[in-house]
Amino acid sequence: MGNYFCRRIFKLLIVIQVFTLFHPSVKLFAQEVVVPPRDTVAALPDPKPKSAVIVPKADNFIQRFDDRTMISLALNRTPQVTPTMRFLSRNLMYGNIGVPAGLFLGGVISNNREMRENAGYIASSTAITFVATYLIKKIVGRPRPFVRNLKIVPVYIPGESSFPSGHSSTSFSTAMALSQAYPKWYVVAPAFLWAGGTAYSRMYLGVHYPTDVFSGAALGSGTAILLKPAFK
User: Fold this and answer.
1) Checking phi first, is residue 149 left (phi over 0); if not, alpha (psi -120 to 50) or beta?
2) What is the reported pTM?
3) DSSP letter, residue 208
4) Left (φ > 0), alpha (ψ -120 to 50) or beta: where does 154 sit?
5) 66-78 per-position pLDDT tens digit
6) What is the pLDDT of residue 160?
7) DSSP one-letter code for 34
8) What angle do CA 229, 15, 131 make, to 5 degrees?
């Protein structure tokens, strides 16, 4: 009965994940609009007088930490590193979908039930994390860093709100679930290197605060850990 229930939940979550990831109304993962060069921006007419532009002051030490970190990262970008960070952010779904899909396919080919169940566990963890992140974003509605502070210049303009980071939450969910299923160093190390790089890229690109990233990582990791007993 328990295995039947898990299989039904797994199929439902896969349908939800695929639908939400590719439905045109969902914009959780950054609709990219490239920021024009500074000289082009300077040549464009100002839509409202400068006196109307208000940059709120950081009212607590967490916001000050966020702002300082983001400004420092923006000022220290390099042409060599930026393409790598863009690559990590753009190709998130290859990891989130590819890992459970590969395990499931391998389990079918080798008739390995444990591998198929691990695929269901990882996919379920990532799907639940995705939905939770989307709901939290809608409830909290935190502005993106470059909206709140004009000194933070992003590499591109994403949609939706800032808290928590969806890239961070789902990548860490996938990495943690994979590590829980296969607790070997040669699995754990690459998984968290990928998740950590993806999370860092969101700050580097100027689209998420450090607290967005840390919270997303905690959400995804916690979901994977709490869900593990259901698939034993």
Assistant:
1) beta
2) 0.75
3) S
4) beta
5) 999 999 999 999 9
6) 78
7) B
8) 65
